[in-house]
Amino acid sequence: MTNGARILIIDDEPQIRKLLKVTLQAHSFEIHEAATGEDGVYQASIVHPDLIVLDLGLPSMSGMDVLTRVREWSQIPIIVLTAKDREEDKIAALDGGADDYVTKPFGMGELVARIRVALRHVAKTVDEPILRFDHLVIDLAQRLVELDGNRVKLTPTEYDLLKVLASNAGKVVTQRQLLQQVWGGHHHESDSHYLRIYIGHLRKKLEEDPTRPKFIETEPGIGYRFLLQP
What we know:
Rossmann fold, phosphoprotein, 2 domains, DNA-binding, Arc Repressor Mutant, subunit A
């Protein structure tokens, strides 16, 4: 899926587009470009890319508007580039449907890794009932979790939280998204302390050293990321 995947770059800076094009072509990706949000939405509809790299700081039609427009008809993976390091901008992009974000200036190695994660994630069979991460196995059909061959006893809430994070392995899941998917509509943003408590419970049951987690990483002020890849 990753080799030869079509990537649409939507960025108004020619030097950024050139850097991305040269680097990503060297990784065997097929590259398409757009310099404006309007052209980006149009290209997305005719090129049918496998993934979009989207700059949030576009003139006229903003990156957030592009994200909203594309999400009206497609669930294609979108990685946003932002020069803004504000948590609110990252949260807004993720809640608006972005799959991941990279803050400018960024390392190309990091971006390529994020792209591969997003492409692997979308390539996985949706109906796959078992998620395997080395020595951690999550059986979605039986709601069972095993670590090193031993059953891990989780409460229903702990299991649902782990399921959401593991199903989005490699991606940032915001606090708001977790609250909605695990606790449903009956929650407030102020309930984020519940998340910290339950994440702490999961780490105690899964991690060798809960203070240095290898499974669930905290994205401060934003949410959490499940680190392992299936």
